[in-house]
Amino acid sequence: MLRLSSDDMISKIEMEEPFHAVSDDYSFTLKIEEYTYFLCGAVHDGHQFRKELWDNCLHSEYDRWYEEDPCTKQMVQSNPMVIAGMDSRFEYDLNRAPETAIYDDAWGKQLWRTPLPEDQKQKSLSKHATFYKVVHALVSKMEEKFGGAIVYDMHSYNWKRWDRPVPVINLGTKNIDNERFSAFAKAWCDALKNITLPHDIETTAAINDTFQGNGYFLKYITENTQNTLVLATEFSKIYCDEYDYILYPEVVDAIEQQLKLTLRNHATTFYNDFILKNGLLPS
């Protein structure tokens, strides 16, 4: 893996060079084995938390882990194009707009003992801006090359906090162009229901049940492209014990192994039935 500045990453993207790199500020990774029409993102995978913030933070490491999306990068790491955050959403949230990306409180609990100094905020927001600068270059290149693209926006959520039955997998589609893309969202939901999980976990999937897909990653890409579909895909944390802070690697591995084929097959259908059928592929 290389260490690259955002400008170096963008130069490679513009020249369609494959690469696997970490940003020079160590805030995100980007792997491009080949340039294709589908991208996987895991913006909440990160757990890093800048040391200068520790003493001022009222949340424990466990508190932060509980609200992060551990292992979401691993679930899709076998795919040819993957971008993933390395920093905790408690430093800055890549799935929020810049003006709300730094929390004052989180899930009803005050986050900071004293308000963050402006220079610390700006240090975090500069990483947020850098990430989206690269995202913009990448999805623009995908549309330039293929005429359209699909992005699998991977997340997880704490199912035990709900007081009703919730799906193992939730798709949020409120902010996509449903007139053009609802069939692809439904097909993705249906495909995910066929994933077989260890320990006799029944795989259920639903659209807009627990979350509606209101994240900034989805909205940013949707607003800055013409023909790109972003599917916000949330796995409930059946792959860990969210209260006891224990991961179940065999469940994560099962998801990863089955998404290899399921995701590629769905992306291929999108390519055939949307990009090719609508004549979007540049000549």
Characterise the protein shown here.
- The protein is of the alpha/beta class and 283 residues long.
- It has one domain (2-276): 3-Layer(aba) Sandwich (Aminopeptidase), CATH 3.40.630.
- The protein has helices at residues 6-14, 61-67, 72-76, 118-146, 178-192, 216-223, 249-276; strands at residues 2-4, 19-23, 28-32, 38-42, 81-85, 105-106, 109-110, 149-157, 169-172, 205-207, 228-236, 240-241, 246-247.
- The chain has a nine-stranded mixed beta sheet with strand order 1-2-3-5-4-8-11-9-10, sandwiched between helices. Strands 6-7 form a two-stranded antiparallel sheet. Strands 12-13 form a two-stranded antiparallel sheet.
- Strand 2 and strand 3 form a beta hairpin.
- Helix 1 (6-14) runs parallel beside helix 4 (118-146).
- The model has no long low-confidence stretch (mean pLDDT 97).
Q: For the record, what CATH class applies?
A: Alpha Beta
Look at the structure and name the CATH superfamily.
Answer: Zn-dependent exopeptidases
Across the major sheet, the strand order is: 1-2-3-5-4-8-11-9-10
Compute the gyration radius: what is it?
A: 18 Å
Number of strands: 13
> How much β-strand is present in the residues?
15-25%
Structural class: alpha/beta
Helix content: 25-40%
Mean pLDDT: 97
CATH topology: Aminopeptidase
Please give the domain count. 1
Major sheet description? 9 strands, mixed
H-E order:
EHEEEHHEEEHEEHEHEEEH
What is the name of the CATH architecture? 3-Layer(aba) Sandwich
Euclidean distance between termini CA atoms = 34 Å
Shape: globular
The low-pLDDT segments are: none
The number of helical runs is: 7
